[in-house]
Amino acid sequence: MPQGRPTRIPDDGLTTRARRNTAVLAVHTGAGKGKSTAAFGMALRAWNAGLDIAVFQFVKSAKWKVGEEAAFRQLGRLHDDHGTGGPVQWHKMGAGWSWARKPGSVADHAAAAADGWAEIARRLAAQQHDFYVLDEFTYPLNWGWVDVGEVVDTLLGRPGRQHVVITGRDAPPRLIQAADLVTEMAKVKHPMDAGRKGQKGIEW
């Protein structure tokens, strides 16, 4: 896509403007670092454009300190107080299924994930937000806690111009096929390979 120009123009009956304004479904997957970080970078651009932002974290613990969360909450307050950017909501959907051991059975966690997806589907149907980040959402999909087919059908049928970005390893093939934008993060090197633990300002 040299100089931001598409390599081909599809024969879809749409004008250039209509095609440009089509809602985007993006997937950030792969074993490398940066999937969520890239999604939050897109959300930052969307906030600056005045879009209504909603972040749903599916796997990280409710106690896990995420630097982007603090920043986006401040941006949400900036919008509420001064009208700058767009409104922001940030939701932690569960009890830290992969990052920390929490009370409750697998069935409890699966039910929480299903409830979280049901809430997102409700908001999509109502066109409640403009830009959604479903962070680490591939995990409940791969564990069978949320039905992939239902998710894909809901996303493909979502009304209006609602952008959705999904992050996490091993994105299901059906989700990849449905997406407009797919990026696979490949690890080349990582400090943890040399025995170094995650650090503030880099991992969180």
TrEMBL record:
Q: Name one Pfam family in it.
A: CobA_CobO_BtuR
Q: Which UniProt keywords apply?
A: Transferase
Please give the superkingdom of this protein's source: Bacteria
The GO biological-process annotations, alphabetized, read as: cobalamin biosynthetic process
Task: Cite the GO molecular-function annotations of the record.
Answer: ATP binding; corrinoid adenosyltransferase activity
Q: Which InterPro entries match?
A: CblAdoTrfase_CobA (IPR003724), P-loop_NTPase (IPR027417)
In its UniProt entry, what is this protein called? Answer: Cob(I)alamin adenosyltransferase
Which gene is this protein's source? cobO
